[in-house]
Specification:
Layout (H helix, E strand, L loop, with lengths): L1 H17 L3 H14 L1 H13 L12 H13 E3 L4 E3 L8 H9 L7 H17 L6 H12 L8 H46 L16 H14 L8 H8 L7 H8 L6 H16 L1 H10 L4 H5 L1 H19 L3 H14 L5 H5 L2
Antiparallel strand pairs: 1-2
């Protein structure tokens, strides 16, 4: 009876974990791991022992969570960089068992090629100013690994690559902040002059709809440029786009930015993601959003309500037309990026 209860509890936990976006885990687990390392170690083992923990991790989304947890637990954060604290293949006894079971695969020529690709990506990341194309390429490579992630040479190369990506991202963000600080005083002086010849600061408040906002449109274009790996246009929108975390975007969401824009669902998805990303880092972005003539009050209230209403209607329309997959994807994007409103607020006109 006790064994059955524990098994059900474990299954419930892993089902709950599978529903949490990886971006949310990245935002919360580093602090938890610092003060409650044993609990996060247990979480990693639970991922391996869960319903797909039979060695068949092929193309399973939990593989990305396992990849992240191993990296988090095998490294530590110093003042400026993340560095290794232990062998990734020995981070827990269960991980060690998985690695030992796949030790012989290390001599497979395909595994050698994959390890070399990961090592080459580490060197490439150190040289480029836009890591997104490399990240997308390596994400696809890692997803194809399945349980072969635990071939010891591969797991060590993956963790080295993950650390390099994180450190390079932090370095680029620090450079952007430095450039912002250098330009800030000059920008403030110019703003006073520009406001006399363009729209007043209150003009942004007269924009009733998120779809009429030039600032939101500029951020959509800048994020699209970044995701496509193109050279960004100089300007504030590109700087904001460079700081938001787009690593958690799913395939359908990426396509809304990287393929030829269409009206309808793609337009809703782009606007919802831009608003959601801005709200996640609102304290740091508030001044820049104002300079893009984006009204923060409208962003966090009226535009959230507008997008929730529009997305809810689109989901119902798609479902009624039999397009269940598209409806579910749209609802998932809405839940991932937009704050949920109370029933009374959501139904208000």
């Amino acid at each position: 009876m006790i064994d059955a209860t524990l098994a059900q509890f474990s299954a419930d936990l892993i089902e709950c974990l599978d529903q949490i976006p990886l971006a949310q885990l990245r935002a919360t687990l580093p602090t938890v791991a610092e003060y409650h390392r044993e609990e996060v170690l247990a979480l990693l083992d639970l991922c391996l022992e869960g319903p797909t923990g039979d060695g068949s991790f092929d193309h399973h989304p939990r593989l990305a969570v396992v990849d992240y947890l191993v990296t988090l637990l095998a490294t530590r954060e110093t003042r400026d960089l993340r560095v290794l604290r232990c062998d990734p293949c020995r981070v827990t006894p269960l991980v060690a068992q998985w690695c030992e079971a796949r030790q012989l695969l290390a001599s497979d020529p395909e595994m050698t090629e994959i390890e070399q690709a990961l090592r080459a990506a580490v060197a490439e990341i150190a040289e480029v100013s836009n890591v997104e194309p490399v990240v997308r390429r390596m994400r696809a490579l890692k997803l194809q690994l399945g349980a072969r992630l635990f071939v010891p040479t591969i797991l060590r190369a993956v963790v080295d690559y993950n650390v390099a990506v994180g450190n390079r991202g932090q370095e680029l963000m620090d450079q952007t902040r430095h450039e912002d600080a250098v330009m800030e005083r000059a920008s403030r002086a110019l703003e006073a002059i520009q406001r006399q010849h363009t729209r007043t600061p209150d003009a942004a408040r007269r924009i009733r709809s998120v779809f009429e906002s030039p600032g939101v449109a500029a951020l959509e274009d800048a994020i699209s440029t970044r995701l496509q790996g193109a050279e960004p246009e100089p300007g504030l929108a590109a700087k904001v786009a460079a700081t938001v975390d787009v690593s958690g975007l799913e395939d359908e969401e990426l396509r809304a930015f990287t393929e030829t824009p269409e009206e309808g669902a793609s337009m809703l998805v782009r606007a919802a993601i831009v608003v959601g990303l801005a709200l996640r880092d609102l304290p740091a972005l508030q001044d820049k959003l104002h300079r893009l003539e984006i009204d923060v009050d409208a962003l966090s209230e009226a535009w959230v309500h507008e997008l929730n209403s529009a997305l809810g209607g689109a989901v119902r329309t798609l479902a009624a037309a039999g397009n269940q997959r598209e409806a579910e994807q749209l609802a998932r994007t809405q839940a991932r990026f937009l704050p949920q409103e109370s029933e009374s607020a959501a139904s208000a006109d």
